[in-house]
Design goal:
It is a single chain. The protein has 457 residues and is of the alpha/beta class. The protein folds into two domains: 228 residues, Enolpyruvate transferase domain (UDP-n-acetylglucosamine1-carboxyvinyl-transferase, Chain), CATH 3.65.10.10; 213 residues, Enolpyruvate transferase domain (UDP-n-acetylglucosamine1-carboxyvinyl-transferase, Chain), CATH 3.65.10. The chain has a four-stranded mixed β-sheet with strand order 22-23-1-24. Helix 1 runs parallel beside helix 2, helix 1 runs parallel beside helix 3 and helix 3 runs parallel beside helix 5. It is globular. The protein binds shikimate-3-phosphate (S3P). The site of shikimate-3-phosphate (S3P) has 10 residues, from helix 5. Shikimate-3-phosphate binds next to helix 5.
């Protein structure tokens, strides 16, 4: 689990020409959902391309603890024998979701309408994150909870014995909250309705339909209404998990910033509710082309071709935030190497991710010689141009995989090496990040013996 072992620093040095093919691992969001819906279905679900990162492995353990049979058959190949809607049993021990906000929040939704108690915990990052956003709608179904103040983990969710369906308008744009409400609605008679003001990632709606549930989506001026008919019989499926656009963002931006780079990134999931970064990079002048656009496993997919590019700063529209919410850390690195400022507004949700990502990026970028302004819900990075970022700092990853990978990418194009204090969190979402990047030519090394003076002034 991230943060449970000794910290191993990662040193990133200026590299030249990243080249070759970058096979990105499976999509984290889709992987969690494939395991959970498989566990709630009747019969076998066969999954290929599952992300075997720590976050997803914790969800697999949780599904076993709730009574499903979950077996790894080979690399990325998993089989889930589900218990059917309403068939979970009380877990004998605490469910530990490690670093994963998605894992814990989706599973809370899945158990909230089962008449038993479940205790949840996680690592130091997850124990700080807000869970009231889930507990409030779960209370409308009839569930209750007891935990630390402000709904922090560890907490025990007391499932509703006779759940009632709800209509719930999301107070924050969050696919995790939307999905938790829909998952709770599965074991509830009648119709559950979630309303979102702006579209968040829609993997839950797509996959629920694939498993045989009736889910209707109605886009109106008053919002996006998602209606689920409760107590469906979900049937086991074959699921091919696409490659994660949020993970692909790291080698893609690295190739844009490292002179002489030319990468092929095959089969990236480009669901419109996830693809905002790629649109933004193109607006910044990135030489990024999409080829062979197609559909795989119910999701749009394309091959990406990316070359080193001179970037310019842009204003990212706030209405695009939901479709690239996980990509602002790496976008702010791209922005540091662009000409002129990049303004990112409407990004308050970044403050409640694995860490406060606005604060973490601002601190690390400033340490690397980049000027940053922040407000509660915005960040402006003053770009220094392709050769203008000094680097030469020790940066804290703060138990956040995306902060760690973002500064690793920054170090590949900065003038002086960048050390990330702990590479451990990267394993939560991109376990082969290091060998994959090294294989493309990135000068990234683990500092196994940090006592021997790889530090910075
Ligand atoms: C996710 C939703 C997003 C995202 C997270 C994955 C999901 O979180 O940041 O990495 O799979 O539903 P929020 O729902 O908190 O925005």
């Amino acid at each position: 689990m991230a943060g449970s072992g000794p910290s191993i620093p990662l040193i990133a040095r200026k590299s030249s020409g990243l080249r070759g093919e970058a096979p990105i691992p499976g999509d984290k969001s889709v992987s969690h959902r494939a395991l959970i819906f498989g566990a709630m279905a009747i019969g076998k679900t066969r999954i290929t391309g599952l992300l075997e990162g720590e976050d997803v492995l914790d969800t697999a353990k949780a599904m076993r603890a709730l009574g499903a049979t979950v077996v790894r058959k080979g690399l990325g190949e998993w089989e889930v024998d589900g218990v059917g809607t309403g068939g979970f049993c009380e877990p004998e021990d605490v469910l530990d979701h490690g670093n994963s906000g998605t894992g814990v929040r989706l599973v809370m939704g899945a158990v909230a309408t089962h008449g038993f108690n479940t205790t949840f915990t996680g690592d130091a990052s997850l124990r700080k994150r807000p869970m009231n956003r889930i507990l409030q709608p779960m209370a409308l179904f009839g569930a209750s909870s007891v935990g630390r103040s402000e709904g922090r983990l560890p907490l025990t969710l007391i499932g509703a014995k006779e759940p009632v369906p709800v209509e719930y308008r999301l107070p924050v744009p969050s696919a995790q909250v939307k999905s938790a409400v829909l998952l709770a609605g599965l074991n509830t008679p009648g119709e559950t309705c979630v309303i979102e003001d702006e579209a968040t990632r829609d993997h839950t709606e797509r996959m629920l339909r694939g498993f045989g549930a009736v889910v209707e989506v109605d886009e109106r001026a008053q919002g996006r209404f998602i209606r689920l008919q409760g107590q469906p019989e979900l049937k086991g499926q074959e699921i091919q998990v696409g490659r994660d656009p949020s993970s692909a963002a790291f080698p893609v931006v690295a190739a844009l910033l490292v002179e002489g780079s030319h990468l092929q990134v095959p089969g990236i999931g480009l669901n419109p509710t996830r693809a905002g970064l790629y649109e933004t990079l193109q607006e910044m002048g990135a030489d990024l082309t999409l080829q062979n656009e197609r559909e795989e496993g119910g999701e749009p997919v394309a091959d990406l071709i990316v070359r080193f590019s001179a970037l310019k700063g842009v204003e990212v529209p706030p209405e695009r935030a939901a479709s690239m919410i996980d990509e602002y850390p790496i976008l702010s690195v791209a922005a540091a190497f662009a000409q002129g400022p990049t303004v990112m507004r409407g990004v308050k949700e970044l403050r409640v991710k694995e860490t406060d990502r606005i604060a973490a990026m601002a601190t690390g970028l400033r340490a690397c010689g980049v000027e940053v302004e922040e407000t509660e819900d915005s960040m402006t990075v003053f770009g220094r141009g392709a050769d203008g970022v000094r680097g030469g700092a020790l940066v804290s990853s703060e138990l956040d995989h995306r902060i760690a990978m973002s500064f690793a990418v920054l170090g590949l194009a900065a003038q002086e090496p960048v050390t990330i204090d702990d590479a451990g969190p990267i394993a939560t979402s991109f376990p082969n990040f290091l060998p994959l990047m090294q294989g493309l030519g990135a000068d990234l090394v683990l500092d196994e013996d940090p006592g021997l003076g790889a530090g910075h002034e």
